[in-house]
Request: fold
Amino acid sequence: MSKRSLYALALTGAMLPMAANAECGEVSVGEMNWTSGGIITGITAFLLEQGYGCDVTVVPSATTTAITSLAENNEPDIVPELWVNSAPVYFELAEEGKVIRASDTFSDGGTEHWLVPDYVVEENPELGTIEGILNNPEAVGGMFHSCPDGWGCRIVSDSLAEAFDLEGNGIEVFHHGSGETLAGAMASAYENGEPYFGYYWGPTAPLGKYDMVSVDLGPYNEEIHACNQDTDCTEVGVSGFPSADVYNVVTADLAEREPEAFELMENVTFSNDQMNSLLAWHSDNQASIDEAVVYFLQNNQDQWMSWLSDDAKANLEGMF
Reply:
């Protein structure tokens, strides 16, 4: 475990003395090991410390380690950005009353897409649908940029490529060797105004930097999508991607012990576009997680102030 506090102090020099709040004690917050998870944990820790006077401990974590720790140790008290589709034990713990979904981390959940640049759709709106792309493969470069081997999206995209018969319709399926080359191909095409057609997910920095259009693959079908995810399934079919549930989770113990902290977590949520843009700012400026936390706090004060209790607002008023 590690302490990480006073994010603004080192970067703004604008920190004011925090008002004492004897009612808030020790609170542990899990920090997922990816950028958005780190930023959300930083924002949460800052508000708990400076607004509510909590003694916050940030716990390095990840999906599996977080849900295992919740199951075995009932900690950390707060786990922001838990992708519950990758943590099925969450539902058992929720059913047992041990954990609580405080809020949706992202307004649209986690999203997956087959994408084309906005400029190709502006030139030919038909390219916003898979049928339009199959009828005009050269207009999207005649290639589908797919996921690296070992990624879950590789399996689903392979299934969809078969269901839509991409190669039979003149579209080569190219599997990238890494996430970096997948993102790089999108960036290179967009910055040069070239045709492009490929997979990506959000919230992520590339979707904050480039105006991409999610291709209409048709409605989501739970049964077909489950088959498309299974390498042993022989009856792949056509289905759009579902959004993934991503929650800010707290323990029932925290909700009872620190009700104001729980109420704060009930309000902490971000739109997908906002997180895409924040991640793009972090990437473009080669910023640290702490710098991204401060950037968010400085530029979205009305939003995060609306999450706070009256006492916490008073503690943080005028800080930025």
Remarks:
- The longest helix spans residues 35-52.
- The first strand starts at residue 26 and ends at 32.
